[in-house]
Amino acid sequence: MAGVLFISVITMGSRGMPGSIIEQRTDSLVQAYMAKYHVPGMSIAIAKDGKIILAKGYGLADSATGEKVTNNSLFRIASVSKPITAAAIMKLVEDGRLQLDAKVFGKGGVLGNLYGMLPYKGDVNKITVHELLQHTCGGWSNNDEDPMFLDPSLTQVQVITYTLDSLPLQTAPGKAFAYSNFGYCLLGRIIEKVSGEKYAQYVRKHILLPAGITDMKIGGNFFADRKKEEVKYYGQDGEDPYIYNITRMDSHGGWIASARDLLKFVFEVDSFATKPDILQPATIALMVTPSSANKNYACGWAVNGNYNWWHTGSLPGTATELVRAHNGYSWAILANTRSGDKNFVADMDKLVWKVIRPEK
Questions:
Q1: Helix, strand, coil: what percent of the chain each, to 5?
Q2: Of 183, 129, 153, nearest to 248 (Cα)?
Q3: Cα within 13 Å of Cα(255), Cβ side
C-alpha cells in the first residue's frame, strides 16, 4: 500500500538540481517514510522561487476502493489552518479595519459581551487580538482540557460560552506562551464581527481567490460528509479519525486543501520578490515577528533565527506540514494518518530538507 505512486507534475528543476533528481529523491524518502509509519496516502508539493517544481500523490486515498492520491486530493490540514487565519487577520489590520492591540472582550472590545456571563473572570477583558495570534492570551491551552475538543454536539457559541464561564486564565495576558486552539477559534469570530462575513467566506474572498485557490473548504465531521476529492482518514493505535467536530474547528483546524493549493497560499505571503504578496512587506514582517514570551512563534507561524517559517498540523487520521524556508524553497506535506511514534513528526519534517540538502 505504501509503495503505490500516482501522478506527478514537475514544472521545473531548482537551480543546479534537475526536476528528475528531485522526484527520485522524494520518491525514495517518501516511500520509506510511508512504509515505516504505515501511512496509506500522502501528497507533497515543493516550490522554489515561487514556482512549483514537484507535486505528487503517493499511495491510497481510500484503501477499500483502491482510489489513489492525486494532486487534486484534499486532506484535512488541521493546525496548518492557523497561518491562513493569521493572514486574514493581518489583512483586516492592513485595511485599517482592526488593530492588533484592540481588546477582544468587554466594553470597547471587538467581541464585546457577545459570549458568556458577565462580569468576565480575571484578566479576560485585557486580552488583545495580538495575544490571541501569538498564543499569549494567558490560558485555554491545547491540553487534556482543550475546549475545542469538547462534546462535538456543542455549537461554537456554546463552546465559547462554556470556556469563558468555566475555564479561568492561568497567567496574565502577554506573559506566557500557551498554544491555544480556542484562541484561534476566537480569531475566526473576530474576522466575522469586523468583516460582517462568515469566516470561510471572508477567507475565500480576500485570501484564497486572489491566489487562484478555489477548492479549499471547511471539512466535514464524518466519513459521510467527505467532500469531492477528499481522502479517507485512518486512525492508528485505536484512534477514531471521525470523532471530532471538524467544522466547528474552522479557523484553528477546519480547512481541507491540496498540497499545491497550500503552496499557492504561501506564495501570497512569503515576502520573496518572485511575485507580489497579498500583504505589504511591513505587515508580513509584523506577522512573522515572535513574541517576547516565545522566540519561536509569531502570528500563526512557527519561526526561527534562520528566517524559516512553518506550521504543523495533527488530528486523528491527519498529519500535515507547511514550510516557507529562507532559501527560496517552500513545501507542503499531507498525510491521511498519524502515528504515535515519537519520531513521526520529526521524520516528516526532515523529508524535504533531505531532498534539497542531501548532504545534511
A1: 35, 20, 45
A2: 153
A3: 31
Amino acid identity at 33: Y
Which secondary-structure segment (H or E) carries 45?
strand 41-48
Torsions phi, psi for 73 (to 5 deg): -65, 135
Q: How far apart are CA 188 and CA 200, in angstroms?
A: 9
Asked if residues 53 and 10 have their Cβ atoms less than 8 Å apart, the reply is yes
Which element (helix H / strand E) includes 75? strand 75-76
* Close Cβ partners of 292 (under 8 Å, ≥ 6 residues apart): none
Q: What is the helix (H) or strand (E) element at residue 164, kind and residue range?
A: helix 156-166
Residue 194: φ, ψ to 5°: -75, -40
> Which one-letter DSSP state was computed for residue 209?
G
Give the span between the Cα atoms of 162 and 154, in whole angstroms. 10
Local confidence pLDDT in tens for the 360 residues of the chain? 333 344 444 434 555 466 688 999 999 999 999 999 999 999 999 999 999 999 999 999 999 999 999 999 999 999 999 999 999 999 999 999 999 999 999 999 999 999 999 999 899 999 999 999 999 999 999 998 999 999 999 999 999 999 999 999 999 999 999 999 999 999 999 999 999 999 999 999 999 999 999 999 999 999 999 999 999 999 999 999 999 999 999 999 999 999 999 999 999 999 999 889 999 999 999 999 999 999 999 999 999 999 999 999 999 999 999 999 999 999 999 999 999 999 999 999 999 999 998 765
Residue 47 in contact with residue 268, Cβ under 8 Å?
no
Q: Which three cell numbers stand for residue 94?
A: 492592513
Closest to 336 in 3D by CA, of 217, 221, 230, 227: 230
Following DSSP, what letter does each residue of 225-274 receive, concatenated?
GPPTTBPP-B-STT--TTSS-TGGGHHHH-EEE-HHHHHHHHHTTS--TT
Q: Are 324 and 50 in contact (CB under 8 A)?
A: no
* C-alpha span between 175 and 291 (Å, rounded): 10
Q: Label residue 113 exposed, middle or buried (CB < 10 Å: 0-12, 13-18, 19+).
A: middle
